[in-house]
Amino acid sequence: MSTTQQEKPHTNSWWKSPYDEWLAAQDVPVVSGYYIEDARTLELGWWTLRGCEGAVLNLVGHQGVTEAHVLRTPPGGEIPPFRMAVEEVVYVVEGQGLTTVWAEGRPKINFEWQKHSLFRIPANHYYQLSNARGDRPALTLHVSYLPMAMGIQPREAFFFNNEFVDTTELYSDDGNPYGAEAYAVRELVDRGGEKHYTNRWYANFFPDLTVWDRLTPYGGPNRRALGAGITFPNSAIRTGMMVLPPQRYRSAHRHGPGVTIVGVSPGNGFAVMYPEGGEKILCPWTEASVFVPPNNWFHQHVNPGATENRQLRVFPPKALMGYDGGLNREIPFIEEDPWVREQFEAALARNGVPSLMPREIYEDPNFVWDDPELSGEG
Ligand SMILES: [Fe+2]
Q1: Which of 32, 126, 182, 237 is the most exposed place for a label (fewest CB within 10 A)?
Q2: 256: CA distance to ligand 1 center in Å?
Q3: Within this chain, do residues 153 and 227 fall inside the same structural domain, yes or no?
Q4: pLDDT single digits (tens) 113-132
């Protein structure tokens, strides 16, 4: 084998991911770290590709699998049409406006959104966001699998200049695909021992995640919460909402990378994240906070407030969640580092409310938490 210097076969650096190289060439601000406290106050900058101001979140936990970015649609204005070869899930952080979405040469489809709306843009469909308000900008948070997709297909033109469109996704005889009301399907979820029923909701557009009240309990005995499964027909992206009742928290668990978690309701909760045996990171959590637990880091959701707390979760491809790889594990409260409970109780004291966690859960290994609010059919 010759070791003489030869002309490089291509320009990609072998030690960098194609997504990282692509992102480094963009002029948009990139935010790193473990979390952002408030997407509404993020420092934005011009992004030539999108023709608007924005910021890309390339958080530690995204880990080359998923990405998130914030775009600003100016007051009374719009941002240029855009399309890419991977679908996007869009959550409205602030504002009110209109999306126009269409496939090349096909009719334009419109729908209106408001703060806390959630919708999906299918792959290679053009879309344009317009601000319905003249007095304030609109902020949208977009999540996609672009980093992972670029990892197996590094050619930029494939993603931003790709003619393939599946027109069956939005064009059918059923009317506006964004106008149909969400419908629920009651499904039995079986994750090898942990079985529960859930209402899984189907739609392309969810107008307001804050008023959603038909929730189902889910999770193991130490990890009970209320939830709503969110499914976009034809989508590879799985999403869900978690609603944590007041003055309690969930035990630590872990799984694969790339779950983008967005605070939907106000409040002063927090998440704790840590690698096994490692230092704990406390992520303050309120409306429009975003955090992404890194691969296999334990994490738990803590709500020391007097009102419920909602989070939207956009999951990575299922194979990467580790559900089937034997990696999933939780730490029962009785084995928990007392530091977590101390943080919880200090936050409760600041809020002037008592804990609703049963004392025995920290002391009795056989204790079964029979919580009527979360009894469900698990
Ligand atoms: Fe999790």
Answers
A1: 32
A2: 9
A3: no
A4: 999 999 999 999 999 999 99
